Structures are given as C-alpha cells and as structure tokens.
Amino acid sequence: MAATLLLLYQTAKVRLGFLIMACAFAGVAVSSEHPLSAWQIVALGFATLVASSAAGAFNQYYERDLDGRMRRTAGRPFVTGRFEADWPWLAAILLALTMAVVLAAFATNWLAALYVFLGAFTYGVVYTVWLKRRTWMNIVIGGLAGSFAVLAGAAAAGDGMGPAPLILAGVLFLWTPPHFWALALACRDDYRAAGIPMLPVVIGGRATARTILAHAVAMVGLSLLPAMFGMGIIYLVGAVLGGGFFIVACLRLAAKPETAQAWRAFAASIVQLGVLLSAAMLDRLILG
Known about the structure:
It is built from 15 helices and no strands. With about 290 residues, it is an all-alpha fold. It is globular and about 50 Å long. The N and C termini lie far apart (about 45 Å). The mean pLDDT is about 95.
C-alpha cells in the first residue's frame, strides 16, 4: 500500500501541486483585503492542489510514449506498466478535477473556481497536448498555469483585478520558462532523443543560458513592484534576496552553460519562488 501511494504521489506530481497551492495562497496574501475565513483559504488551497495533481497525472498518462524515450522519466509507472493507461484513469482524473472546481466554487466563488480549472487545463491540455511536441513556446504559454493559481487566490479574496495580484501573476508567467529551460538544458540530450523541441534543443545551450538570464532579470524586476501597491518590507526583502540568489545562479549558467550549473539554476529558481511566496504570505500575516 505504501509503495502504491508513493507511486500515486509521484504520478500526480504532488510536489508541484504544493507549489501551485502556495501560489494561490500568495494570491490571497497580496490582495488589498479579503473577507475569507481560515476554512475557505484551506479549501481553496486543497482545491488548487487536487486540480494541479489531476493535471500532473494526466500529463504522465498522455506522455507515456515520450517518457519512455528519456532516462529521467523512463521509470514512471505508466511507462513501466505498473499503472495501466486505461479509461478508469481518465475517469478518475476528470472526477478529481471536477471535485476540485466544485470545492473552490463552494468555498469561495465561481471566478476563483474558473481560474482553478484554467490552471489545470493550461497544463494538462494546452501545454501537454497542444504545444509540447510542436513548439519551443510550449513552456512559455504553459507558464500561465501558475499565473491562474495566483488569480484564483485573488479572485477568492475579491481582488482579482488588483495591481499586486496581477503583477504577481505576471511574475509566475515569467518565472516558469527560465525554471523549466534550466531543467531542459540539464536534460537536453533526453529531450533531443525524444524529439521534443525544448529551447536548448532548438537554439543550443549557450543561447538558452542567455535567454534564461534575460527572463530571470525581467521576472525579478517585476517581482519588486508589488511593494509599490501595498506589500511591505518583508515581501520586498524576500523578493530582493530570492531574486538575487536566482540571478547569480543564472549569471553563472550564462558564463558556463554546462549540465551541473543548469541543475543549480533550476534549484535556485525553486528557492527563489519559495522565498517570494513565503515572504508574501508572511508580510500579510505579520504586517497585515
């Protein structure tokens, strides 16, 4: 049972789901004010987590042929046959997504629920089905998945069009490409073998590293702006420290676009976003 639960956890990409859930919480935090109770915030977070996990499971279900061609993903359950890719899986994924959307609507409002759905749809269908095998722009457009989580939190708080939530959604949109391109650069041989047009496969490692740096600088610069729209010193310090850490890693990658440094930049992107989102939530919790 424990082994099966672990496989489910990995198949649904629950770790990514927790990050998306944090994006929703941050969307609430950067809103100018919110009438949400603790249970509503928890329910919204759980709905976002479940929706993201449903999209992650569909991603592995649909991409099992590609995963089988790459060393990093060749051991996934749908590739090895430990999970059989049949219609009950699709039904379970659709049911989980439906329940998540209904929960978000019940706990908050239908606009927040719509954003929860759009985040899962963007990753599961727009990115996975429509774009990934066709264009290097796949992850650029796919980056909207995280943006929708922020907007879900803001909409739940009644501030869907506020400047700070919109800016943070833009930060998530700009964060995803350098984050994933760093991974693609580290695994470029895998992506080349699978025939997936990730940016390092299309333009090479050095040009990709420079593009990662440019995106990181733009993203970090944008992440500072919520301090002009109600966020306090805790948020600003987190944005500066986390952003600086990521930019340094990207500078090193641009100077030496090799696998080891690509992995460091990938890890730094996760640290940067984690610090930024945590700072947003702490700022609202402590400073109000």
